Amino acid sequence: MPVCARFAVDSVQTSPPNATKRAIALFDLDGTLIPWDCQLLFRHFVVRREPWRALLLPVFLIFTPFAAILGTECMKRIFLSYLWRIDARELAAYAREFAQSLMPAIYPQLRERIDAHRRAGDLLILSSASPEFYVREIGALLGFDISLGTVVAPGTLFPDLENHKGAAKVTRLKQVLDSSYLIDGRLPGSCGYTDSRADLPMLAICERVLVVNPDARLSAMALENQWEIMRPTRPWRSPLDRALRLLALLFGIGSDPAGINAARP
Questions:
Q1: What is the torsional sign of CA 205, 210, 215, 220?
Q2: Would you say residue 224 lies in a domain?
């Protein structure tokens, strides 16, 4: 019985050649495994180590009023301007250190699901819109078989990237999975985990779904489709507290505005 059904609680990677009969567990990252957007967490992580990079924040802020016109992919390129001229080896080292530091922030309930899928022999796939250079490191620490994210070529002020969001996640899955996994465009026996309506294309190919801290619209969809709902406790005390923490992360203020260290056992 697939793990989703057993619980009562509301560099190109490809699938291993011996995995064609394994059920698949698809996990989003930001807001699903952790309460925060990893892109803000990583920015804070880097700026605290290289404070001069905070001087590049106005580059992003200047363009934010035009976000609706520029689109998500373009704004992500502008946001990543803080990595301008970063050395590739240094970035890789930061990604490894960041992934390790993030482990206490993983929701315990979701960690249990990951472990349960692993024990069941399922193929674990981490599918995120965050940059792949640290998504892979996070996935490796959590024991994922495949970790996919936004492919970024850092170094330039506005780095080239392929935004791994929405329907792009499904396209990428079809590229990395053996064709035997897909039957009539769906993944039999699969289970999808997300907190966002942006992942509806990914959920559409899954047999079972669990949504994490969904908003009102996603909650309504979950009830209508009989999806599981999980509501792990988030670290902020109020919307204002969350907003202040987000600003601290953006500006590189404070040693741990996300409260990750407070989550350590």
A1: positive
A2: yes
Compute the C-alpha angle 235/128/92, nearest 5°.
90
In three-state secondary structure terms, 50 is coil
Task: Answer yes or no: is 16 within a domain.
Answer: no
**Cβ(212)–Cβ(107) below 8 Å:** yes
Handedness of CA 256, 241, 39, 263 (dihedral sign): positive
User: Domain total for the chain?
Assistant: 1
pLDDT digits (tens, 9 = 90+) for 84-126: 999 999 999 999 999 999 999 999 999 999 999 999 999 999 9
Tell me the backbone φ, ψ of residue 127, rounded to 5 degrees: -125, 110
Task: Determine the Cα–Cα distance for residues 85 and 125; give it in Å rounded to an integer.
Answer: 31
Domain coverage including residue 108 = 21-257
Around Cβ 65, how many Cβ atoms within 10 Å? Answer: 9
Query: pTM to 2 decimals?
Result: 0.91
In this structure, what CATH number is given to the domain that contains residue 247? 3.40.50.1000
Buried b or exposed e, range 168-205, using 16+ CB within 10 angstroms: bbbebbeeebeeebeeeeebebbbbbbbbebbeebbeb
Residue 1 included in any domain? no
Is residue 12 in some structural domain? no
Q: What share of the chain is helix, strand, coil (3-state, %, to 5)?
A: 50, 20, 30
